[in-house]
Amino acid sequence: MRDLRESRRAYRSIEVDLDALTEEGLWTASTQFRRELQRIPEINRLKRQFQGECFVVPEWLHTGDRVHYGARIYFFREEESVTPEDVIQKNIDAIPSDSFHNFERYQGRLHGYPDCCIDFYHERTSNAPAPEWRSIKPFADQINDEALGNGSSAPIDDVLPRFSEWEDRYAFFAREFFPEPGCETALTKGRAIYDGLSSEYSTRLVEEYFGLTFGYNYLVARAVHTGGSHRPTPGDLGREHLRFYLPLRELLTTSRYS
Ligand SMILES: [Zn+2]
What we know:
Layout: H1 2-12, H2 23-37, H3 41-49, E1 53-63, E2 66-76, H4 84-93, H5 100-110, H6 115-121, H7 131-136, H8 184-198, H9 203-225, H10 239-243, H11 248-251
Antiparallel strand pairs: 1-2
Helix pairs in contact: 2-4, 4-5
The chain binds zinc ion.
Zinc ion (ZN) is lined by residues 114, 116-117, 179-180, 183, 185-186.
């Protein structure tokens, strides 16, 4: 807990200097920003604990006349890792030319998303609803909207009744991954993830993971569809949602998931 507080304080105190929106300027700022990020206790803890490659990189986004920045932590299996420099370079390449979608495609591939769904996600035109919404829409009438907003004491079953009966639910295997409706590749991939998780953890925990992932995506898609950009905060989807922010080790000590 103390480490988390300290990490939050450390992150907030980082000052990012971006002198020029050029490749050189962005590299200088990235190097300095990354050096600060690597001092954060929580990031060091994750690196120590994870049995694979784990690193943090700055992330830049250029919209209109503003540059937004943040940090992202990547986790790779040992043999599948790229280098932090690769990620930073791809990000910087996508900045001056205002071609952020190239970086998003690259990230999609790093995350293991099917190419067809990456293409689907980038089909954005003004005369069709956003892909986020097109991905979710086939399920919209099975979501109990009225149960949303009941706070973190209500169970997620109120929002997604009979979710475990949906065959298509496996396609929603990662937060903010929006599968193309009916995509068999996404479904197959999701089933493999379901099976992999089920061999380690209780079915209840795995079902809740998929339910929360779908619910999270639904709220993001709805916000995009109605012109917002709001990401759900912990507990918005009910008590399981809040609980999922606990460290996995803690979750597994509860009788519900053991
Ligand atoms: Zn697909």
